[in-house]
Each structure stands twice: as C-alpha cells, then as structure tokens.
Amino acid sequence: MDVDVIVVGAGPTGLMLACELALAGVRTRILERRTEPRRDSRALTLHPRSLELMDQRGLLDRFLALGRTVPGWHFAQLPTRLDFSALDSRHGYTLFLAQARTEALLAERARELGAQIRYGHEVVAVSQDGDGVEARVRGPRGDETFRARFAVGCDGGRSRIREAAGIGFPGTDETLTGVLGDVAVIDDDPAVLDAARARGVLVAPLEDGLTRLVYVDPERMRVPAREPVTLEEFRASLIRICGFDCGVGEPRWLSRFGNATRLAERYRSGRILLAGDAAHIHFPAAGQGLNTGLQDAMNLGWKLAAAVHGWSPPGLLDSYDEERNPVGRAVTGNTEVQTLLAELTLVPQYQRPGAALRELFDELLRVEEVNRELAAQVSALGTAYPPTNPGADPLVGRRMPDIGFTTTASEATRVYELLPQGRFVHLDLAGDPRLGAVVTGWGPRVTAVTVTERDDHTDLEGVREVLVRPDGHIAWATRTADLATRRDERHNALTAWAGTPS
Ligand SMILES: Cc1cc2nc3c(=O)[nH]c(=O)nc-3n(C[C@H](O)[C@H](O)[C@H](O)COP(=O)(O)OP(=O)(O)OC[C@H]3O[C@@H](n4cnc5c(N)ncnc54)[C@H](O)[C@@H]3O)c2cc1C
C-alpha cells in the first residue's frame, strides 16, 4: 500500500478529513485535480458547530484571527435574523471567512500533521477489491496508480468517486439560479447597501475591501448556471431589483449557481466513502454546504482511523452513513424550504400569497422557541445522532456541552480542551477517583478525567459519568448511583465505541 487512505479532492471537506486522519496517525494522501490552491471563495460562513470543532482541535484562534464575527445569520433571507447568540455554545456567532482562507488554514494544518497534498493529480478511475482500493491518476508525471486501504470521495457535486462506487445521487435538477459578484462598490454610502438589502440582495463585506452581492433576478432566474455572468448583466439585474446598481465597479469574480438538490443514496460502498458535496448538493441557502462537509469529515475521520488501525468495533464505520445521511437529508430539506420561500415572491401568480407566507414566517421567527429551533438547525448545534441502545440516556448522540470544571489535580479546564488529540474522553462527573483506572484497558484511545467541581448545566443535572466521542458527541452517559450497573454499562459502551480492551 502507498498510504492508508486516499482522499480525492482538496476542498474544505477533503482537507478537514486529512487533518482528522493524520491526527490519528493514518498515512493520508490527498489527490487534487487543481494545480494550485483555490483563489475564489464560494463560501463565506463558518457557523457555530464548525467553530466548536475547530475549538476542539485547538485551531480556533487561527480562524478567528482572519475572519469577522456576526451574531447570527438568516433563514430564507427573512428580515428577522437567526440569533445564534441565544444558543448554548461558547461560539454563538458566525465567522465570516472566505473559503480560500479556510482551505489554506486546513491545508497548513494537514501538512503540519504529516498528510500529503498533491495538486495537479486528477483521479480518473477508482476500483476496489478485498484488500484495498486502487486509484488511477493523471498527474505531472503522466499516468500513475496508487493503492490504499480506503478511498474517500471529497471531490464535489460531480464526484467521479461516487460514480465509480456505483452510488446513486437521486434528487432534482436545477430549476432556479442566483448570481454572486465579488465587486468593488464605488458608492460606499451604507444607505445604498441597506436599501439593496431591503430589496432582497444579500450584501456581505469581504476582507479585502470588496463586497459580495448575491441576488436572484426574476427575469434571469431560469438562465442555466453554466452560462457566464457579465458585468453588464450584473448591473442590469441590480437596477431591475433595487432601482440602482449599487455603484458596482470592477468585479473580481462573477458566478451563477443553481438549486440542483441531490443526496447520495449511501455514503459508503465497501472501501469507498463519500463526504461533503460529493454526498449532498443544494442551493447555498444560509451557507450550510461547507459547514456540513466539515462536520461529515469530523464524523468520519476517527471511525476510518479505527478501521485502519484495526480496533474498529463492528458497525462503527457503517455508523458514518447512518449518522450523516439523515443530516444531509435535513440540510437539503431546509435549503429547499428556503429556496421556495424566496422563489414564491418572484413568480407573478404567487407574488401576493408568497409575500404573505414570508411575512408569516418572519413573524414566527420572532417567537423565541421557533428562532432557537431554526438557529439550532442552521448552526448545526442541534445535530444529534440516534442512540444505538433503546434504553440510552437522552444525552446520547447529542453534542457534549463545553462545561468548565476542575480536576483532581486542581487544574481548571473545559471539555473541548481535552479533545485536541481526537481521543475519547471519559468524564467522571461524580468525582470518584477510583474510576480513573477503569478505562485504562483502552490505553491511549481514552483520556480519563475525574471532575471535582464543575459548571452547572441543566442537561447534565444528575449525570455521573459521560463518554465523549472524538468528534465531541456523547457516546454514553449515566445517572445511576449503583456502581455495579455503571461498571457494566461503561464497559459495554467503551467496547461498542472504542473496541475491545487490550
Ligand atoms: C455561491 C455559493 C455560495 C456558497 N456559500 C456558502 C457559505 O457561505 N457557507 C457554506 O457553508 N457553504 C457555502 N457554499 C457551499 C460550499 O462552497 C460547498 O459546500 C463546499 O465547497 C463543499 O466542499 P467540498 O470540499 O465538499 O467540495 P468542493 O469544494 O467542490 O471541493 C472538491 C475538490 O475536489 C476536486 N476534484 C474534483 N474531481 C476531482 C478528481 N477527479 N480528482 C482530483 N480532484 C478532484 C476539485 O478540484 C475540488 O478542489 C456556497 C456555494 C455556492 C455555489
């Protein structure tokens, strides 16, 4: 084998996955068709759950140093914003950061951890047998063949790896397109941009003095995404929508994008797996695609590493599809709702009921519980995986809250500070120092911590022990005081998730 895992595609998903695999000591090679890193930036947003993941891996400061935070984001471009700051997270905000920057930071991290990134290497075919996978590659040295134990297609919506694995991609074709422009705005009167916002144009300042304007022009919304956008068209559309062209000057990038919506039938076929846009595509409503890809990678990385290192318990790798496919379904679903809410007001016969529906939705967003629910969806803080055990504590599958606590060694710390190595964390919240030794059979796979004092958290009331997965979700929790029951439950949970003890 040349390496353990071949990751196809150095987009955000492939880079994040390479970081996770390399962190776990897996020999990883990314093969990327582009000859150099990306310069344009489709995505701009890193939402709260993605920021929590960066925090868990000790990377957050690198990201915060380059971006700008905003306290919430939108749903269907409705005037009432989603309030991320009301959610239970230390990172209840969105970070504005250009996709190219996110990719550069992840590439830097992947290399630090020892992953190889090979630009100019296009994978033209992938096949698999009982022992591994074989990728045929067209690169600077001509045609080459690489072997690995697994391959992951992070190669975007038109994924060749998905096709090679015979995984279907059902869904709907593009029926509507929008346009984005990263442009110099010569008329920098804030009132002009506010007026554009009020007419449904998404306005986002970029870090280099340019402004991103995004819109759907009713007269051009059936133009296929493959048709290039000219500056004349861009200006004419703005005048049609706003009554003025926002003083648009030279563009750096104009692009048309569509609402084709598809979800892979499954995320795994034997030794080939899919993540990110290769597994799900949708309209970029509320900026969720890149975020979902990062979260796929976080879910898959440690499971694939377990399979490579030979300690994977039965079903662990399959749980990637079981857990992430429903998330892909939910995200594609909510983007379809948002697209419909926007489209209705653009189609003449639905304009009035469409506007009434948007008003109704906007009113609903002013109801705290509704806002919180949708904010939890878009931020992905609400993502919970179904428990495998029917009698499980309600916390199982949910993300572990980042509570602060003191350990028996009198160290003040918090949960996410215990996750940078991507290991399981066993927290004895009841503070019995004897329990530290009971997880030693799992060696370096599990970090055991005894808590003496901790922050209050309603969800954790009465909880005595928690096993946190490497991706920050809860594998097991118990509230029982009976030591013998706890011992059995703990042993079963550790064996089910972290494999048999050595
Ligand atoms: C207009 C627009 C705005 C968006 N805004 C946001 C946003 O604000 N927030 C957000 O979360 N998401 C946003 N998205 C979505 C986001 O850009 C994508 O979800 C994200 O890029 C997906 O990352 P990925 O790594 O899965 O795939 P990609 O970014 O598509 O990367 C795939 C990589 O694989 C490479 N590749 C393809 N085929 C091969 C091959 N055969 N061999 C080798 N390499 C190959 C490609 O060159 C590419 O580098 C937006 C999308 C659009 C269109």
Automatic annotation (TrEMBL):
<dbReference type="InterPro" id="IPR036188">
    <property type="entry name" value="FAD/NAD-bd_sf"/>
</dbReference>
<protein>
    <submittedName>
        <fullName>FAD-dependent monooxygenase</fullName>
    </submittedName>
</protein>
<feature type="domain" description="FAD-binding">
    <location>
        <begin position="2"/>
        <end position="334"/>
    </location>
</feature>
<dbReference type="GO" id="GO:0071949">
    <property type="term" value="F:FAD binding"/>
</dbReference>
<keyword id="KW-0560">Oxidoreductase</keyword>
<keyword id="KW-0503">Monooxygenase</keyword>
<keyword id="KW-0285">Flavoprotein</keyword>
<dbReference type="InterPro" id="IPR002938">
    <property type="entry name" value="FAD-bd"/>
</dbReference>
<dbReference type="InterPro" id="IPR050641">
    <property type="entry name" value="RIFMO-like"/>
</dbReference>
<dbReference type="Pfam" id="PF21274">
    <property type="entry name" value="Rng_hyd_C"/>
</dbReference>
<keyword id="KW-0274">FAD</keyword>
<dbReference type="Pfam" id="PF01494">
    <property type="entry name" value="FAD_binding_3"/>
</dbReference>
<dbReference type="GO" id="GO:0016709">
    <property type="term" value="F:oxidoreductase activity, acting on paired donors, with incorporation or reduction of molecular oxygen, NAD(P)H as one donor, and incorporation of one atom of oxygen"/>
</dbReference>
<keyword id="KW-0614">Plasmid</keyword>
